[in-house]
Every structure is written in structure tokens, then in C-alpha cells.
User: What shape does this take?
Amino acid sequence: MSIPNPNFSHKSVAKSFTNSLMAENQLIDSLTSHISLYHSHSLSPNANRNPHPRSSILKWFSSLTIHQRQAHLTIIESKFTQLLIQMIGKLRTKGHGFFIILPDLPSRDPPYLPNLCYKKSRGLLSRVSESNETERWILECTRLFNSREGEKIDGCSCSTDCLDCVTVSEDFVGNMDRFVDTMDKVSKGEFLRGEETELGADWVEFDWLKAQGYYSIEAFVANRVEVALRLAWLNSNNGKKRGVKLKEKVNAAGVAANVYWRKKGCVDWWRNLDTAMRRKVLTTIFGKAAKSLFELFGEGNFKSSPDKSKDKPSACGRRKKGRTRSMKRQNPLPKSPVDEQSFDKRSKVP
Assistant: This one.
């Protein structure tokens, strides 16, 4: 009769199997990431491969002014902006890593963003990412703002939940050679290559982004910048708009450009004001904000509760009150001139 080993239970077997499976998955993830890194650095882009519509778009884009380029690359999309904020939060709390989004599996809570998968980078992957100045420059040149900012003073908010627009800085599009070179490096030479077959989708991912598997936040932004550039080119050149969704996206690109110009007008107006006028504007804004806060919180604190005024005095309270009144009538005390004078002064106070 064999004696069972108490140290070799079913729970320990299941635990060791789970740990080995997790270690195997981590090894596979690390191996695929390193293969992707090697593939991206060893692949030389072919500049002559499928140049259309790249040459036409870049020729049109280079003919614009810097601010016109910023306007056409402005993205007004709340879900994309909020997802980008989530990515930034992950990087700040957990360190550098890579992402992949799952549009088919949205979150259960509003605004129903796609599920975001995060994988922390370690070792060689982390060192390569930290030394990649090109990708860091993309994120540094990204700007977020609220499309409805400034419409109402009462509606102003500093919460990141109100941010729904993304644009780029002047430095990002000021030099066309650097802009194209940056986008080529992030996309592995596939920037503006191929046809715009999926521009009408909600979450467009070009083939160069899908080939990376887990991608960086900079690649995610560059992918969306290319989408905005293609849509702006279709809107400005009356290109072929196949499908209802694509027409809606193209029209939204025009709206985003108008939002940028309105935002720029507000910023330019503020910069042109002198110090005295800025002080007056801020005083007016703070005064209205303080009035709103007082109406919101002050009235509730200073008003007495209506329940207390409606309470009826009890029988015991009535007897005590009557007893004190009778005592005051029986023993009246003469008032001094000083008391009368002070009472008269207090009664005249409004």
C-alpha cells in the first residue's frame, strides 16, 4: 500500500502548472517582441513602392501654411482623446510599455471605450524605447484641448474628462522634411502608402500599425495623424468618398479644422491684450465663478432648515415659557440709561 506524499497535493500541482504556463507565455511575448524589434531595424523601406497617393498628399500639404497644417491635423473625437489619456496614465504609473486596443470588446461603463491591453517593456526593449528620440518627439508635440472651451464661463472645467480634441504643435509641422522623416521612421516607411480603404471605420489601424502587434503610444498617435491627413486631403480636393461613413468622417475633418481656428483665435486675442486688460478679464471671470459657487454652496449653509421652523412646542415647553413670562411680570427691573442707550443702538443696526 503506497502512502500519499502530503507535500505533493493536487493544489500544489495546479499551482506549479499555472506558474509554468505563465512563465511560458511571458517567454513567448518577450521572444515575439524582440523579433519584431529586429525586423523593424533590419527592414529597409523601399521609397518607390506604391507612391500614390503619397506624392499627391505631401505636395498639397507642403503648399499650406504652418497653421493650416495644424488645422488639418486636428482631431475632434472624444473617445480617441480619452483613450490617449488612459495610455498616458498607464505610462506614468507603470513605466514604459506597449499597447493594443480591442474595439470589439468595449468597456461596460460610459463612454464605452475599447479595452486597452498594456504590456510593460523591460531590458533591451525598454532601453531602445527610451533612446528613441523620434517617437518621444511625437508625444511631446501632441496637444489636447476642449472643443467647447470658452463658450460659457459657468461650463469651464479643468477635468480631463472634458478633453475631446487632439492637435499638434507648430514645431511638428513647421519643417516638412522632419515631419515626413518622423512619420516614416514610426511607420517603418509605410507612411501614406497604399489606398484609404478603411478610413470610414471608427478605429482605423493601418497595416504598418497592425504589423507591430503591441505598439507604442507614439505609433498610435502617428496612425491617427495619418488618418486625419488623408481625410483632410479628401475634404480639400473633393476626392472620392465611398460610403456614408466615409462622408461623415470627411465632414468631421472639416469641423475639426474650424474648431482649431476658433481655438487659435481665442489664444491670439489673449496674447494681444495688455496686462491691464488681462487683469480686468480675469477679475470678471473670477467674480462670476465666485458668484456661482456662492449660489451653489452659500445658500444651503446660511438658510435655516424648514423642518425646525415647523416644529410645534411641546406641552412642557409651553409651561416653562409661561412660567418665565409670569416671573418677568412679577419682578420687573428698572433699566439703566446705559442699557436703554445700548439697546437703542443695537436696534438701529440694519
User: Anything to note?
Assistant: The two ends are 102 Å apart (CA to CA). Confidence is low (pLDDT under 50) at residues 43-48, 333-350. Residues 57-259 form one domain. The longest strand covers residues 97-106.
